[in-house]
Amino acid sequence: MEPLLSVRNLTKRFGGLVAVNQVSMDVHPGEVVGLVGDNGAGKSTLIKMISGVYQPNEGEIYFDGKLAHIANPSQARDMGIETIYQDLALAGNLDMSANIFLGRERKKRYLGGLIRVLDEKFMLQEAQKLLQSLDVHIPSATAKIDYLSGGQRQAVAIARALYWEARLMIMDEPTNNLGVIEQAKVLDLIRRLRDQGVPVIVISHTIRDIFAVSDRIVVLHRGRKVADKRTQDTSTEEIIQYIMGARDDYHRN
Amino acid sequence: MVSEAQAPSLPATSKRRTTGQQAILLGSKIWSWLFLLMLVFYFSWQGTGFFSLRNSQNILVAIVPIVLMGLGQTFVIIAGGIDLSVGWLMGLSSVISALVIREEYNAGVAPWLAIIQGLLAGVGVALAAGLINGVIVAKLRVPPFIVTLGVSFVARGIGFLLAKGNIIAGQPQLARDLGNESLLYYVRGEGGGWYFLKKPDVTGAQLRMMDRVFTWPVVITFIVVLVAIFILHKTQFGRHTYAIGGNREAALRAGVPVDRHVILLYMMSAGTAGLAGVMHAWRFSGGAADAGDALLMMSIAAVVIGGVSLFGGQGRVIGTVIGALILAVLQTGLIMINVKTFYQYVIVGIIVILAVLMDQARDLIVGRAEAAA
User: How far apart are CA B78 and CA A216, in angstroms?
Assistant: First the structure.
């Protein structure tokens, strides 16, 4: 199968520091890729090049088989690359449907478009349908985001990305600050996303979560890719060795 | 360990609040209504003539500028800002509008046309000041407290300069009528009754039996309130106002034109203050630079009592109207039961602080629910 995202020899330097060094990786439709590595291994920098925050010094990004120059985050979003950061970027004082439609509200037009009123009913119904399709249950659909649990908020953020036709989802530490049960729910949500054909790149420090959810694991060490393995072909111990720099599939010392 | 078999729906953990917490949440929502009702009952029982048509109309007339300034302020504060310039902008607008009306009228322009020109000039100047506030806050990132304070001083100076320290009088009768005549009239006693849109032809002792019901500034303010309710609660503009106050970064990332929106909010706030100034000039048949000096703090008090959070993101238009009513009812009621004016300030101060405490109690409860999640 054609990869949806293909990065080739990406390099990013900050002054003398090479944060990401000649990294190549593919993401195929319907797979979850776990991106792991120690602090400073280059995970965030790599992700930020894909989501348009940073521009690579060298290398190419191919999206959908075409060479892509991603100049800024909104361009990435327009292409269908959605990044869900830890802070989630939801407005806590608004409810889930207001958040899902924020900036792209559906309106009813009166007097030939002179008066435009928010179509609350439509937005609420769409939001509920969406969460139902993700099998997420939120007790009160009109509760403010502030009143929701961490996992429910993750779900709303994912739902928003999905509604606006995300084609690739990047999630940075999605299970941080969640309770044990909620962590499991969010991982389940990631699998659902994959089953709907949306590939997901998950960054996490929790190796257990990566093993629970990913199909493939990419390990970075000091800016270089040191491993790219199918999850079922490896083990926690082996991945930890890669993270520590004790193993390297690509570079001879 | 995580297992694949777990039920997929997210649990509604920790959403159970205790009865006490729910009482505070409910209380924080409806206390202002209850408090207003309580005040009305109390003063009606204690004060002679409080519960009367005439006094109700006096209260409505008194709250016009507080409500108008409070409306704009409500939008600005919900979006996480504050506008301290509205008090002196109101005065500047009243001076400019009265000046334009006087000059045009003296030059032979028809009164109605002079009044329209005055309205446009008064509100226009306020809008320009609002634009300056908004641009400096949104684009140059100067804290709104400072920007609007500065603009307030500038407006104060210009207002006094233009008025040469005086009141701009010499207004046509039509302006005075617009400020004081009403939609309805009621004449008490023999041969009296209701009159709609037509001033009854009464004189002398009977004139004192006549009440003006819903004066034109009250009617105009009522319409502006309805428009504000519509905009804040029913439109995309209102939704974005809440979003900016709730999480500016989220609004920005979601594609809300935050800078433009903030500029428009400060223009709205200044614009309603300008309208208050123009109507002040009608009502008192003259413009005064210090017309809104004492009203700024009253309008902010009304907004806060009405439940608008100074941290942004929370509040409703109707709350501000209730807040203004509470202030006016207190003021007239305390006078009627012979409480010295100075005590009023003490009481208003205590109520404002209590209102903010309610606000924080509510936030604390939400915060606890979050922490337990």
Answer: 46
pLDDT at residue B370 is higher than 80: no
Q: How many CA atoms lie within 13 A of A158 on its CB side?
A: 33
Q: Show which of residues 138-167 on chain A sit within 8 Å of chain B, judged by CB atoms.
A: 138-139, 144, 146-152, 155
Note whether B13 contacts A138, CB cutoff 8 Å.
no
Segment B140-185, tens digit of pLDDT: 999 999 999 999 999 999 999 999 989 999 999 999 999 999 999 9
Does A56 contact B at CB distance below 8 Å?
no
Predicted model pTM: 0.85
pLDDT per residue over A152-195, tens digit each? 888 888 888 888 888 999 998 888 878 888 888 889 889 988 88
* Under 8 Å between Cβ of B96 and B162: yes
Taking the Cβ of residue A136 and every Cβ of chain B, the question of whether any pair is shorter than 8 Å is answered with: yes
Q: How far, in whole angstroms, is CA B305 from its chain's centroid?
A: 12
**Is B246 in Cβ contact with A179 (below 8 Å)?**
no
pLDDT category, B7, cuts 50, 70, 90?
very low
Q: How many CB pairs under 8 A join A and B?
A: 118
Q: Nearest residue on chain A to B248, judged by CA atoms?
A: A91
Rounded to whole angstroms, the Cα distance separating B106 from B103 reads 5
Cβ of B99: how many Cβ atoms within 10 Å?
19
* Segment among A134-148, A206-220, B156-170 with least mean pLDDT: A134-148
**Phi and psi (nearest 5°) for B299?**
-70, -40
Q: Which residue has the tokens 């709907």?
A: A196
CA distances from B50 to A87, A184, B9, B61, B336 (A): 54, 63, 58, 15, 7
Q: What is the pLDDT of residues B108-123, one digit of tens each?
A: 999 999 999 999 999 9
Which long-range contacts does B350-358 make (Cβ < 8 Å, 24+ apart)? B351/B35, B351/B301, B351/B305, B351/B326, B352/B301, B352/B304, B352/B305, B355/B32, B355/B304, B355/B305, B355/B307, B355/B323, B356/B304, B356/B310, B358/B24, B358/B27, B358/B28, B358/B31, B358/B307
Inspect the interface and report whether the beta carbons of B255 and A73 lie closer than 8 Å. Answer: no
Domains and CATH numbers, chain B: 19-372 (1.10.3470)
Interchain contact, B235 vs A117, CB within 8 Å? yes
Rounded Cα distance between B35 and B221, Å, is: 23
Structure tokens at B244: 């900016």
The reply to whether A53 touches chain B by the CB within 8 Å rule is: no
Q: Respond yes or no on whether ipTM tops 0.95.
A: no
CB–CB of A138 and B10 under 8 A? yes
At residue B71, does pLDDT exceed 60?
Answer: yes
Contact with chain B for residue A190, Cβ under 8 A: no
Strands A81-84 and A66-68: unpaired
Average pLDDT value over all residues in chain A? 90
Which is it for strands A17-27 and A5-14: parallel, antiparallel or unpaired? Answer: antiparallel
Band the pLDDT of B366: cuts 50, 70, 90: low
